[in-house]
Amino acid sequence: MANTIQTHDFIVVDYTGKLVDGVVFDTTDADVAKKNNIFNPKLNYSPVTICLGEKQILPGLDQHLLGKEVGKSFVVTLEAEEAFGKRDVKRVKIVPLTTFKDHKVQPFAGLQIDVDGEMGTITSISGGRVIVNFNHPLAGKQVMYEVRPLRTITSVEEKVKAYLHTTLRLPVERLNVVVAPGKTTVEVPFAMPEQLFTMLGQKLEIVTGAQGVTFSVVGGQKA
């Protein structure tokens, strides 16, 4: 019987994203990135691990992976609502040129900037006003993905590490997970409020099957 993907399955996935005209904008394959002139040496090109149903990938991909067969590639076309969202005119804002001067930044069209933690792209400069678009660059666009679910992860230890890697943006090698009957201990390299550890532990028990999750902070104390 074919191994089909279900909610909360941990799946290792390769993918390549394209615009409808065939232009590649994202991929997990370094060779594909180089071939299409989008290779970034700062990125790690390798299959990604996601927990299905946990919003760790585009909504449309999350939905279309459900029920698919592991090891079998598929192609899916996503409307804007399923991908990077519709273009919202309210997210196109005017920023005074003086604001950039105060921060000693020389604005130009195409420059990506961070304003109060929100990324935007300068689209034009005119009359002392800078137009910044805070929509995702692909907002409003239909996109296509070639997807290959490579395998499912069954190890509780691997699941815990994968989930924390995605959630906390920590390299897997900085996480130590010990799974024992009725108890799972997770060592992390930084402190968090006890309430957050509790909530994260409860979530891990739901999505990974880990039991009795507790956290310990290596080289520090809990906040």
Number of domains: 3
Question: What is the name of the CATH class of the largest domain?
Answer: Alpha Beta
What characterizes the major β-sheet? 5 strands, antiparallel
Give the second-level CATH assignment, the architecture of the largest domain: Roll
Assembly type: single chain
Low-confidence residue ranges? none
- Average pLDDT level: 92
Fraction of residues in β-strands? 25-35%
Give the distance, in angstroms, between the N- and C-terminal Cα atoms: 48 Å
Q: Which secondary-structure class do the elements indicate?
A: alpha+beta
CATH fold naming of the largest domain:
Chitinase A, domain 3
CA-atom Rg in angstroms: 21 Å
Tally of separate helices: 5
Which of globular, elongated, flat, extended, rod-shaped describes the shape? globular
Query: Based on DSSP secondary structure assignment, what is the total number of beta strands?
Result: 12
Helicity, as a percent range? 10-25%
Task: Encode the helix/strand succession as letters.
Answer: EEHEHEEHEEEEHEEHE
Structural overview:
The protein is 21% helix and 33% strand. It has 3 domains: 1-87 and 138-153, Chitinase A, domain 3; 89-133, Thrombin, subunit H (Beta Barrel); 155-223, 2-Layer Sandwich (Alpha-Beta Plaits). The termini are far apart. Strand 10 (176-180) and strand 11 (183-188) form a beta hairpin. Strands 1, 2, 3, 4 and 9 form a 5-stranded antiparallel β-sheet that branches. A 4-stranded antiparallel β-sheet has the order 5-8-7-6. The protein has 223 residues and is an alpha+beta fold. It is built from 5 helices and 12 strands. It has helices spanning 30-35, 59-65, 97-102, 156-168, 194-208; strands at 10-19, 24-27, 48-51, 74-78, 92-96, 112-115, 118-126, 129-133, 143-153, 176-180, 183-188, 213-217. It is globular and about 70 Å long. The longest helix is centred in the C-terminal third of the chain and has 15 residues, at 194-208.
